[in-house]
Write a structure and sequence with these properties.
Blueprint (H helix, E strand, L loop, with lengths): L5 E9 L6 H4 L19 H4 L22 E4 L11 H9 L3 E4 L4 H8 L4 E4 L2 H13 L4 E5 L4 E3 L5 E3 L4 H9 L3 H6 L2 H14 L9
Length: 206
């Protein structure tokens, strides 16, 4: 998994609350369990018209937001059913960081396992960001995970909180499985010690 340390990128605004996982990745795209092939699925019902052509009114189809790698969204982003296809689509499209007042818990945790940093900022600050993004074409943010800061083009520094375990794992590019494997020596030593301390627990059969 790709580590996240520091990222500077173009910002796209999705000023909607309660965006659910079916809106992020519609159910018709859930036929595969591979992590690839989902870029076109992202917000498909909003990005494309019924005839399959791009919807010119949706922000990701507007030239000023093409190539965006940071998404600023409304409250309770990623709510609804649990589907890892949602962060898969977000990551494959090119987003590395999501900023919102709040995220649904399962979606939030899935982001870390897919090399995406979800940043929680208070609602007033997010509303200010929406205004700045709308007013400034080419609006960029710098996100520093180690320092836990988001820096605006004007130099304003916004601090965010993050669980220390999640932070360290993402800095090193480790999902849950990768983190477990990184401690394989300690796990093996523990198992050996337990077998020596309580061998009867490891006897198989009569």
């Amino acid at each position: 998994m790709e580590p996240f340390t520091m990222h500077t990128g173009l910002v796209a605004p999705l000023d909607r609350t309660n965006v659910n996982t079916d809106e992020i990745t519609p159910a018709r795209f859930l036929k595969s369990i591979k992590r690839t092939g989902f870029a076109d699925a992202l917000f498909a019902n909003w990005r494309f018209l019924n005839d399959g052509t791009p919807n010119p009114d949706f922000m990701l189809n507007q030239p000023r937001y093409r190539g965006a790698s940071i998404l600023v969204a409304g409250d309770n982003f990623g709510c609804g059913s649990s589907r890892e296809h949602a962060p898969w689509a977000i990551r494959e499209y090119g987003f590395r960081c999501l900023i919102a007042p709040s995220f649904a818990d399962i979606f939030y945790n899935n982001c870390f396992n897919n090399s995406i940093l979800p940043v929680t900022l208070d609602e007033a600050t997010v509303k200010e960001l929406f205004k700045e993004i709308e007013a400034t074409e080419g609006y960029m943010l710098n996100v520093d995970l180690a320092a836990q800061t988001v820096t605006t083009p004007a130099g304003r520094v916004l601090r965010f909180e993050i669980d220390q375990f999640r932070k360290e794992a993402l800095l090193k590019g480790l999902d849950n499985i990768g983190w477990t494997l990184s401690h394989s020596n300690e796990i093996a030593a523990y198992e050996k010690r337990r077998q020596e301390e309580a061998p009867w627990l490891f006897k198989v059969g009569a």
